[in-house]
Amino acid sequence: MPSLADQHIVLGITGGIAAYKSAELTRRLMDHGAQVQVVMTDAAKAFIAPLTLQALSGRAVRDTLLDPSAESGMGHIEIARWADRLVVAPASADFIARLAGGMASDLLAAVCLATSAPVVLAPAMNQGMWRKSATQRNIATLKADGVTILGPASGEQACGDVGPGRMLEPGEIISHLTHSGQAKALDGTHVTITAGPTWEAIDPVRGLSNHSSGKMGYAVAAAAAAAGAAVTLVSGPTALDPPPGIQYRPVRSAEEMLAAVEQDIEACDVFIGVAAVADYRPAQSENSKIKKNAESVTLELVRNPDILARVAQQQKRPFTVGFAAETDQPIAYAREKLHNKGLDLIAVNQIDEANNPFGSDQNRLVLISKNDEIDLGRDSKSALAEQLISEIAHRYHGPHSA
Ligand code: CTP
Prior knowledge:
Blueprint lengths: L7 E6 L6 H12 L3 E6 L1 H4 L4 H8 L10 H4 L4 H7 L2 E7 L1 H8 L6 H8 L4 E5 L3 H5 L1 H12 L3 E2 L3 E4 L5 E5 L3 H10 L10 E6 L3 E5 L2 E4 L5 H12 L3 E6 L11 E4 L3 H9 L7 E4 L6 E3 L18 E3 L3 H6 L6 E8 L3 H12 L3 E6 L11 E7 L4 E8 H17 L5
Parallel strand pairs: 1-2, 1-3, 3-4, 4-5, 8-11, 8-13, 11-12, 13-16, 16-17
Antiparallel strand pairs: 6-7, 9-10, 14-15, 17-18, 18-19
Helix pairs in contact: 1-3, 1-10, 5-7, 6-9, 11-15
Bound molecules: cytidine-5'-triphosphate.
């Protein structure tokens, strides 16, 4: 049986160039057995003709809130009741703002407000509009209201910009709709992840840091979110955009990272320390730039807190996972760290000529627990992150190994 058989899906289309993808989305929803009622805003009609969507869905497109002929038939309340799910793709910045404000100023917004069916939005807009704090505030409001936000993806945009704001592809939206009824491995859990390097300031322009692009940690955060977890990503400075649908806490120093981790560690079920935390920081950080007057300077360094060990030592500790990058005897050193820090699991990568993961999209990982050792092999960081999350979920739900 097709995976969306007989589901009533209201497909809302708002104004944006990505509206052309909605025709393909309609066709694929129909292929999966869904009944599709398209509702368009006026702006959407400037990008794609209602007739196209009518032909694909086999139903007249609805676009008017106060339409006397329709109100006596299927008005906005009827559409809202008919829907098993409401999918708005593309969802423009303007529509998102109206929805977050609880407005019912056109048919689609009124249906979204009136329905008790789950609402899913696939945002699409210019990257600057997506990044604006107003849009991010609106997205946070909608998420808190239980609306599911899919994407947006990052990449080259129709306007020539590069960044987050591209609507997900119809296949990705369909995949969410067909899988969202199924239980996921980390449903109902809260996962906190540290990523990236830390920056330990010497003065306002200089500092100590570690080599880390953040790619592995961000991939782990995306994989945990895809597995159904509520994810908090505490990240040192990187050039990456945080994955969609997670709580993001940017920090700079190890001390800031620890404070951000401790904020809600009691609610945390799984902690994964991927960050390359600087082990030492300058004993003193100068408020003004140090001038090069002296022939030599001595920098006194003090130990930073070990965030991972602190988490693992808590009385009500989460399932705790560490990372280790080693050049010599990786397995032996990783085992030592597993034991000394009291971890449930450690992921180790050996750094050598065949594997230099810094900044790369590839890595090679071996997972080590008290009882076993699994070589995940060499793969993309996102594929390794998925495997790691699946191993963590399996062990988290079983007996802890530490
Ligand atoms: N870590 C941490 N806080 C620190 C240092 C490390 O949370 N201050 C975490 C990292 O996120 C990673 C693991 O601990 O998960 C790395 O262990 P660590 O013993 O610090 O590795 P190295 O720094 O490589 O240790 P060493 O230099 O002793 O090999």
